[in-house]
Amino acid sequence: MSTTKQTTDGIRTNVLEFTLGKNRYCVDIGYVAEIVNTEELTSVPNTPDHVEGVMDLRGETTKIVNLRKIFGDEESDLGSRIIVFKRKRNSKERIGWLADEVHQVREVHTRDVDTSVEGEGIAGVIRRDDEFVLWVDPTDVRI
């Protein structure tokens, strides 16, 4: 199911906004499977530092990743929400990203996305009033 739609004034898509520390991020809603509260995680030995553990979501083992560690944020608190998504739109593989807070779904016009900013996993930057929203491409984040 694609959330991208062609309109007479260009292409629009829906994104889910969330915060990690002081930064606001968004991800295309087409990747999102569900949003759940952080529950008890089971740590897995010998996994990369950014893997906080696994949890059972409706009978499926779901890997939970701390994006703060991937993006180099020094804050050590774990978020209270988990955004569960499919890494690829048609994939059954589920992964959860810890988030401090999950905000609403917003429609974004692609002409408003600045793609000149480069960074691993960052597809672009959206300027909204007095803040920037970093657009994360989950297929481009090494986890």
From TrEMBL:
Gene3D superfamilies: CheA-289, Domain 4 (2.40.50.180), SH3 Domains (2.30.30.40). Residues 12-143 form the CheW-like domain. One of its GO terms (biological process) is chemotaxis. PROSITE patterns: CHEW. GO terms for cellular component: cytosol. It comes from the Archaea. It holds the Pfam family CheW. This is CheW protein.
